[in-house]
């Protein structure tokens, strides 16, 4: 595992203290951020012999493409803000670019898998039946974010640092694999061979129709079998996932053209991005309870939709955090209001917590990830600080963030060790302290 330099952690501590001003909880928040950064590095991150970075999700010994990028995103904030010494930041960039090279390897092996093994040892979460079997795949649930997080992170690393060591020949192979998969899954019924079946499990852990998923009709959106929660999609076109995929394809186009010199592939990435965005406008919007226009969570191209939001990112609540929409966009604000209300069947409120949960966890469990996204998409610094303080009070006495926490009893929670959740706390705390995701971002 990886040891972060003490000089870096000291600099993080001081940056949080200075950035949070007179907050009564600034010492505790700074301590938490340092603890979580150290914990992520020492317990989940491993640099392989080939220089790539393998990152387990926490209490499961596999690497999710989505989770791993999110787990290391706080490191990019530190690089952008110039926290630590130049040598410290060089180490952080090496971890990030090593992770990207690992992403490319896995996407080339299997673009439909969501989580992978460190070696080709055929370890798996559970047995399942699909059309392709690889000893590298821990689980083969097709989720759009698996193809999105890598290109997005590569674009942000490149924009922040100019580093292109991630742009290996395998990057181009992975990019072409992403483009081919997107084209196929825009026509899932006619072109895709993918299916996923699992026996003796809950309905959310397998796909209907003999593993093909609920019926869809082509409309320009990209089909997915599973949500960012790893639960099966109710309808085949996940709207927040398509939003993030469209952005990532646009950014992939920049990388292909300006870094890899692949103009034809770049044009294809941008074409697909535009096609998805047009389809989102035509098919992703619904009428909310008050008559305003809001985003659906899923649609099927056959006239059906479902409205909910899930704390796992990409989420409707997290669209501005992902740079998919502006935080003051009227449609987003209307959607946000619906998400943070009883219109969302997975919004829960109790004496200790209120916020977005997930069908992936029991009723009345709010996810700290969702609370941090709520803060990261808010312009109210007092509210953002309140969320951090609330999360500290509801950690069940463990000192760590969890997956879901019961709104009536913080000692009841799921997953004692969940690195993505710890990293999201770091992101909100760093953001509030003026350590932003974007180069040159103005303080709120």
TrEMBL record:
Keywords linked to the UniProt accession: Hydrolase
Name of the protein described by the UniProt record: Glycoside hydrolase family 125 protein
Keyword Protein transport: no
GO molecular function, one term: hydrolase activity
InterPro entries: 6-hairpin_glycosidase_sf, 6hp_glycosidase-like_sf, GH125
